[in-house]
User: Fold these one by one.
Assistant:
Number 1:
Amino acid sequence: MSETARPGGIALGLERITRFLSTVLPYDPRGKLRIVHVAGTNGKGSVCALVSEVLAAAGYRVGTFNSPHFLEPNDALRIQGTPIPAAEYDALREWIRGLDAAAQPPNGPLSLFEQTTAAAFWWFAERSVDIAVVEVGMGGRRDATNVFGAADGKGIGQSLVQCICPVDNDHVGVIGSTVEEIAREKCGIMRPESWIVIANQDRADAFHKIRQHALRTSPGRIINVRRQPSYDIHVPDFSIKQAAGECAPLRPPADLPSWSAFKGTGQRCLRLKYLPSLDTSGTSSSSSSPSTAAAAQHAEGDASAAPGDKPARVEIDLPLVLPGYHQAGNASVAFYALDVLRTNFGFTKLTDTAIQVGFQNVRWPGRLSWLNLASRRMAHSGEPRPLSSDGGNSAEHDESLANWLLADGAHNEPAAVELRKYVDTTLRRIAQQRSIRATRGRSNQGAPHVRWIIGFSKGKDMAAILGRLLQPGDAVWAVPFAQPKDMPWIACEDPRAIGRTAGGPASCGEIAIESFDCLAAAVDRLAADASDDRLNVVCGSLYLVADVFRALEIQPFSQTAVPQ
């Protein structure tokens, strides 16, 4: 049963969306679509971005549906990385609302998210995408995206691969009260006879529930990422060798501060050793081949497989462009989803080179994004300077710490742990650079402290998140964010409440705290102080990060016409 769709609320369930797709639209768009379906607590968006970028680099026409949207509702629907035009999106949504109202559905009208989901599937079908990469909105089992049949053709549409990213406590009380219940809800996207890729899980209770459900649903077609040999390494003199016309060209590197990443003579890579079920010669089978079945057996660690049956593994280095230690895990999930597509479902253009190019080209805004404040500062003096789409200056950037913001949508405790790791690594790099400058006769200021510019949605465990982020000497600027469009169920936490939580017993009075009535006041204050020597980090909500992109007039997605 579906919950009643309340105006401005979240209503889980599949009856309304299934009825609308199958009986109200002129035709059911699912019948024209094959998808990669991605669920989990953290990492879903990064996996979708990687898979989509690789498919596009290989020459496939790929639709991507993310939730939530970033800057505007239309940017959740993209083909080849370009959002559906805003006017077309608005007209499509209005058409869907009209059809739904005229049908007078017995279970009530579609929710706002169901309208967006129907719009995405219709647009993808009308534009004849080769494949769609679909991110779950909330949970999985009762999410509006969970309406596709299995890879063997049973049901309408085909969910070829289901990826389960790391699962932890989030949306507690809505999709489950324990990690096991939340994991079970997310496993609801699994389909018999389809392929399931399970990310490395930090929570053992989540992993056991996910693996148990996968073995019941599609035994023999499970890739357990944590059993695959992989290494997060630095590869000297790394390069991608492309044949002429083999795949998309490489993008130029983003303009970032030198201390934002390792600057050596090579590239941070994920070195994977995969089983040769992956056919990179261009041949493929539409069903599970013996080698693929063996690969799945070993991927799951099946003790019945004889040691002599193990084929030699093939090694590949995948560039890790998205920052953060956790991105190695997301890259593994994306790779094995692509592995399955080219091995079992005829996506023969997914060569190793195409995968490397896609991994090198990927961008995913709002996740450990470095944003330049120089344009805001120039605007104060009446000389605005444009920004590039990745947040860096279009001209040569200034290495001054005061010119940069680190923006990340971390909004739960596991994401806060990863953010703090990255921040600590960045602080060490800055300290090392300053130490080198000191040996050359310049002053040595040492590592800076952190200023956390934080906003939360209501209902988040602020104490747990702040406890993972804050250290003595840090500062907190608590700010609100604007109401996200088409998401009336989202409410912003009062900045004063954030400040009180940050100044609780755990802070020991060593955290400087300020509250702001609007984000613009905080950004203007940063822009006005060119001598600031703190590392400024925006986090706590993706909606807040989106507000920062708007304030700095950064457009992260392609604005070219959607390819016909």
Number 2:
Amino acid sequence: MASEEVAADLADGLSSERGSATKKEKTIPPAGLMKAIIRAGENMETPQKGNQVVFHYTTRTTDGVVVESTKSNLGGRDVPLKLILGKSKMLKGWEEGLMSMCKGEVSMLKIIPELHYGDPEWPVPVPDDFPKDQILVFEIELLDFRSVKVVTDDFGILKEVIIHGQGWETPREPYEVKVRITGKVPREGKIFFQKDQEPFHFTFGKNEVPNGLEKAIATMTRGEIAKIFLSPPYITGASAIPDLPLEADDLEFKVELLQVIQVRDMVGDGRLIKRRLRDGKGEFPVDCPLQDSVLRIHYKGILPDDGGKVFCDTRVDNDGEPLEFGSGEGRVPEGLEMCVKLMLPGELALVSSVSGFAYDKFPRPDGVPDGANVQWEVELLSFEAVKDWTGMNFKQIMDDVEKIKGTNLLNLNVAACHQKLGDPSKSIEWCNKVLEGNPHHVKALYRRGVAYTARGDFEEAHSDFETMKRIDKSSEQDANAAIIKLQKKKQDAEAKARKQFKGLFDKKPGEISSVSSTDVKPDGPEETVHPETKPPEDLPEVEEQTLHPGKFWRLFNSGTSFFKNIARKGCAIL
């Protein structure tokens, strides 16, 4: 009989599952499965469903004729079968028998056809002359069993966890990892690769290790120790393991994941890369300052294309004091802030940025050429999340601000509160506090421009919106929309003023313009004024001056009552 052919069919049939809801569990009839122990095992522990079992087997007829075997002295290749109880395609008689055996045990299983190759529900391909309709005797030697995790659906990559790791962050492309690792061929016990003293460092996605090994390590967390088992489809060429036995039937690696070096392509095209140099405290990303926060960092600015020249260092330039800022304030370049928000407290990282995320849209430090790529070596010392003001009244918010005042982020929030309360002047004051520290803060410019518009200072508002566009091209859409609203409000104000003071300024200097009651209506009840009434002779002489347009419109908006009070019926105004 073709022992190798049948054994190969079994080894290749690992893709289907037993015991699912759609399959009816087969009942073992009396005397359908009988077991005789030839050699006792090492202990009393037996495998369970979900365990991988490693075993040799020999199939015989009841007359003692060998039909097939995995052992070389009986025609096999001396390669044991590796199946997963409850998951791999497996003879029902084998599955039940193996779950009763201990490691090292040798037993004879006498199985009726319905529970081996003659099972109509679970047929396993065998040669036509194979005695599948007879009672067969299987000699099983259980070499080992282990609890494994299935990494790929075809069971080509399995992982046995020895020590569980910490956290849940797992590596992926383009991450880097440091591991202790030993690789061997299980069949021979030969070690072909070993880095168990000095850590082995490799990068995901660079084909430095076999494809299957990379896939398995991608399921591990920091501190985890595991055995990884690869079948031939996943034993691929590896530039960092020159002596890898590509023709092996299977490989086994023992791996300890020492460090996950997070490498993130922040925008997906290589223009902004964050590489973790030292782990921080906490779990990524839940312990990162993803929300609005006050951050404390030290950083060093480097020009990689100028021999690593350092152009700034907060530990030196800032008298050793860290930089403290609020996220969203615009006090650091965009690329630097994006990466800091994905750091853990205590983490040290190297950020590599093109000029577009560095100093093209930010005040350029001395010594940084136009269009220069930069690197920042940044350490996140700590951060404090901004308090959520939801449900608090204005007084409570202001009391809270007094306790933690001093950051631009809070100033902007207070400015927004004043704007919503209809006090644009106060809003402008708080925006000015932000812009005093950073004249290029786009959000502060926008909010102040909105407040100027609400107050009638149209030229100041227009200037802020134009400045936004010059600083940050991405803000053009918001700035242009604000300018359109500004122009509409300005036109409405001008039309209202012309209608309200029609004829008031139409006369030449020295002429009298009569203002009728239909032009300006008084606030209170009408009074009768003698036609010959003249203005008092002791009125001070008004110095001729040019009013700023913004102040001019505030005069009309806020001083209308003044004109109404003096514009009585028949009153003559010089």
